[in-house]
């Protein structure tokens, strides 16, 4: 089965559309990161001004330690939140790219299977074994791809769970340290 010029042109057009779609998804991810970073910068600048004013109004070392302890916990929580936002943006962008890749692969798989089936129907007598071998190889390749795809999804789920656990632990550790520092300042 030979591809016609129209089929080649249609396939090329579909590939170009897919490329532009993926490029747009990548830019959307970058835009979200830029917005997040601008928001963080504005907030940090405002908080730095407030912290400076608070530090300048401190009257003794004990008050300075209390101020330091009070600032420690929110900073860690904000850092963890920032990391979660970045992870969410990257994860969402990666998911969109994966969906497009899966759809493209499924379409290519369907077309290739149709070509193999058409070739099998039109195969000369005596080539049944070769046709069966090709069909078997195609089925094995499809199964291997599906296995890799499942393993990749599981690895992403495990990585996400580990990221969430590590972020939560970091915030808890900072809360504990802030409480201990606060108790030392009060003593």
Structural notes for this entry:
The protein is mainly alpha-helical. It is 92% helix and 0% strand. It has helices at residues 5-56, 61-121, 128-186. α1 packs antiparallel against α2 (61-121) and α2 packs antiparallel against α3 (128-186). The model has no long low-confidence stretch (mean pLDDT 80).
N-C termini distance:
86 Å
Residue runs with pLDDT of under 50 for 5 or more positions: none
Number of strands: 0
The average pLDDT score comes to 80
Gross geometry: elongated
Largest sheet: none
Number of helices: 3
Quickly give the structural class: mainly alpha
The ordered string of helix (H) and strand (E) elements is HHH
Helix proportion range: over 70%
Radius of gyration: 29 Å
Strand content: under 5%
Short note summarizing the structure:
With 187 residues, the protein is mainly α. Helices cover 92% and strands 0% of the residues. Helix 1 (5-56) runs antiparallel to helix 2 (61-121) and helix 2 runs antiparallel to helix 3 (128-186).
What's the helix and strand layout?
Elements: H1 5-56, H2 61-121, H3 128-186
Helix pairs in contact: 1-2, 2-3
Keywords:
single chain; 3 helices; mainly alpha
């Amino acid at each position: 089965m030979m591809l016609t010029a129209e089929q080649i042109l249609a396939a090329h057009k579909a590939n170009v559309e897919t490329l532009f779609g993926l490029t747009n998804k990548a830019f959307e991810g970058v835009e979200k990161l830029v917005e997040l970073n601008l928001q963080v910068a504005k907030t940090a600048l405002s908080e730095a001004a407030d912290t400076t004013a608070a530090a300048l109004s401190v009257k003794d070392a004990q008050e300075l330690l209390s101020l330091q302890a009070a600032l420690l916990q929110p900073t860690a929580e904000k850092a963890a939140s920032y990391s979660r936002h970045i992870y969410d943006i990257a994860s969402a962008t990666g998911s969109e790219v994966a969906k497009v890749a899966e759809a493209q692969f499924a379409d290519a798989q369907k077309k290739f299977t149709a070509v193999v089936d058409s070739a099998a129907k039109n195969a000369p007598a005596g080539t049944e074994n070769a046709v069966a071998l090709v069909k078997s190889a195609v089925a094995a390749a499809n199964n291997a791809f599906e296995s890799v795809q499942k393993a990749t999804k599981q690895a992403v789920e495990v990585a996400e769970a580990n990221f969430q656990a590590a972020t939560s632990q970091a915030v808890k550790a900072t809360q504990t340290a802030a409480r201990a520092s606060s108790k030392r300042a009060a003593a």
